[in-house]
Amino acid sequence: MTTPIQTSTGAAHTRILGIGGYRPSRVVSNAEICEQIDSSDEWIRTRSGIVERRWAEDHETVQAMSVGAARDALKHAGVAPEQIGCVIVATVSHLLQTPAVAPLIATELGTTKAAAFDISAACAGFCHGVALGSDLIRAGSAKYVLAIGVERLSDITDRTDRGTAFIFADGAGAAVIGPSDEPGIGPVVWGSEGEQFDLIRQNEKWPQAIDAGDKVMPTLRMDGNPVFRWASFEMAKIAREALDLAGVALEDLDAFVPHQANMRITDAMARALRLPDNVKIARDIATQGNTSAASVPLAMLRMYDEGTLKSGDTALMIAFGAGLVYAAQVVTVP
Ligand code: COA
């Protein structure tokens, strides 16, 4: 006879209890970018909406930026590090194949041996982390989860590549997720389209780079135009699905917080969604650049800090990127 195994159940509902961020100190202007590519400030502003971006200095490591963002989020949530049961770090720029960076972050924060692991879901990593965290809490695997999105994309950006040099940037964002009396995180709509694997990717595998013998790190490459079209139109459908699953009408939405890929993609999605005028739209990319996994929490944080968002508001988050992968959910603002 099979021995019965007990299972766990957790909270009926979850919500984001606090958010935090870390913006690197170095501001990089379009003029500086144009020292290495044939472009102009005007072209970059018009095509991407980026006026300037943040790049990390040496001491602003993936670990250091994550810890900064996480401490901010824990403080906002009023949750102590010892209460965190799981740390999920979404990143593609922790440049050590193994171990993951999450255990280092969990230890530096002072968690009590929290489960800690990295996930690789590119620019959609933070929204994947929120979905996983929420489900872990509802399943009883952890009471409080820290979801972090962090990147140092400047390390893996070819500064002479016209297609990517002006887009990518560095930073970290974090959210503390915990139990709630009311639903505060809607069902995730997520997925992947592996047939589009090559549209955004590391240009070569590590062994190829080593064989080439030129001591140049692999860098990111992007086929910008198809990514632009896919994100602008397909992602609006995913966003609408997330609203429907959460039972939230467009009129009841306070804010739209999409991945900060490109200002024109944000505008195209807002048009395709027919967002009412009163819905505030995150536009952090203008002065931060595209920070991949960190972009959604940093964008939400800016709205929060500027008073455009307030606690209890309803926000639609959506993120998409290399894979291609995507994830969207409706959340209550902490
Ligand atoms: N500066 C100046 N001109 C540039 C340029 C640059 N950095 N890059 C390309 N161009 C030129 C091209 O040479 C081309 O010139 P031509 O018309 O004389 O041939 C023209 O601009 C259009 O090139 P194209 O590659 O079609 O540009 P685009 O309009 O698609 O814009 C991106 C390029 C990268 C801004 C755009 O494709 C994009 O934003 N894609 C999505 C990027 C993104 O969000 N990625 C993150 C997803 S997570």
Can you tell me about this structure?
α8 links the parallel β11 and β12. The termini are far apart. Helix content is 32%, strand content 25%. The chain has two domains: 168 residues, 3-Layer(aba) Sandwich (Peroxisomal Thiolase, Chain A, domain 1), CATH 3.40.47; 144 residues, Thiolase/Chalcone synthase (Peroxisomal Thiolase, Chain A, domain 1), CATH 3.40.47.10. The strands form four sheets. The chain has a five-stranded mixed β-sheet with strand order 1-7-6-4-5, with helices on both faces. It has a five-stranded mixed β-sheet with strand order 8-14-13-11-12, with helices on both faces. It has a two-stranded antiparallel ribbon with strand order 2-3. With 334 residues, the chain is of the alpha/beta class. α7 crosses α8. It binds coenzyme A (COA). Coenzyme A binds next to α2 and α7.
Quick gist of this model?
The chain has 334 residues and is of the alpha/beta class. It is built from ten helices and 14 strands. It is 32% helix and 25% strand.
Q: Mind sketching the topology for me?
A:
Blueprint: E1 13-22, E2 26-29, H1 30-33, H2 41-48, E3 52-55, H3 62-77, E4 84-90, H4 102-109, E5 115-119, H5 125-139, E6 144-152, E7 170-180, E8 189-192, E9 200-202, H6 206-212, E10 220-222, H7 224-246, E11 255-258, H8 263-273, E12 280-281, H9 285-288, H10 295-305, E13 314-321, E14 325-332
Parallel strand pairs: 4-5, 4-6, 11-12, 11-13
Antiparallel strand pairs: 1-7, 2-3, 6-7, 8-14, 9-10, 13-14
Bound molecules: coenzyme A (COA).
The site of coenzyme A (COA) has 20 residues, from helix 2 and helix 7.
